[in-house]
Design brief:
Blueprint lengths: L1 H7 L3 E6 L2 E13 L28 E6 L3 E7 L8 E11 L1 H8 L12 H8 L11 E2 L2 E4 L11 E3 L16 E3 L10
Antiparallel strand pairs: 1-2, 1-7, 2-5, 2-9, 3-4, 4-5, 6-7, 8-9
The structure holds a DNA duplex (13 and 13 nucleotides).
Length: about 190
DNA sequence: GACAAGATTCGCT
DNA sequence: GCGAATCTTGTCG
């Protein structure tokens, strides 16, 4: 479901943790596919304790720790048995910005607040304990953008940080809104 | 049971 | 712009 990664741009991501409501508009995503994509943790049908969530029906959260420091937040995006997922790389704060600033230990808003997969997760309070959450209901869920007039201009490019995946690293499966400041590049 | 590497970020030069 | 920090996961013995 690579197409879904594109559709997610401009949608809303809402986290309601510890009574704090935060809303962010998704500005950057990357698609990962279980079959034929060496960059995906579940490529070639590999099934481990960490990746088993991706074999479940879509709409679940796949959170894992990278470099021992950062929580990366993915959305499982396909039907049962198809290990696809979409990585959220960046979003633009709309509500609850003060909570995001506090979690990030920052004083004022900058693009670094919620651009970059690790930063985004931290701003919204997403951690590994959120692994397997149903993303259709609180405390963490997705919602359509009600601003009908908003139609993001979407661009695609190769994915970031996966040079080890060989030729699969060149696939243009990164999608983003170039008009937003809250993206990692471009 | 041990070892190598990673879908990154921050701080300093 | 570059290099270090840091620990979980997967693979191998």
């Amino acid at each position: 479901m690579v197409a879904l990664a594109r559709q997610l741009i401009g949608q809303l991501l809402i986290s309601e943790k510890e009574g704090k409501r935060c809303v962010a508009r998704i500005t950057e995503t990357e698609a990962y596919r279980g079959w034929g994509d060496r960059a995906c943790h579940a490529h070639l049908g590999r099934k481990t304790q960490r990746t088993q969530i991706m074999y479940q029906p879509g709409g679940l959260a796949y959170v894992y720790l990278c470099y021992g420091i950062h929580n990366l937040f993915n959305i499982v995006s396909n039907r049962k048995g198809q290990a696809d997922a979409i990585l959220l790389r960046a979003a633009e704060p709309l509500e609850g910005t003060e909570h995001m600033l506090k979690r990030r230990k920052m004083e004022k808003v900058s693009p670094r607040l919620s651009s970059g997969p690790g930063n985004l997760s931290q701003a919204l309070g997403i951690e590994r304990s959120d692994y397997g959450l149903d993303l259709s209901k609180p405390p963490l869920y997705l919602a359509p953008n009600l601003q009908a007039s908003f139609t993001p201009k979407i661009q695609s490019s190769p994915r970031v940080g996966i040079d080890y995946a060989g030729e699969d690293a060149a696939l243009p499966w990164r999608f983003y809104d170039p008009r937003s400041r809250f993206v990692t590049k471009g």
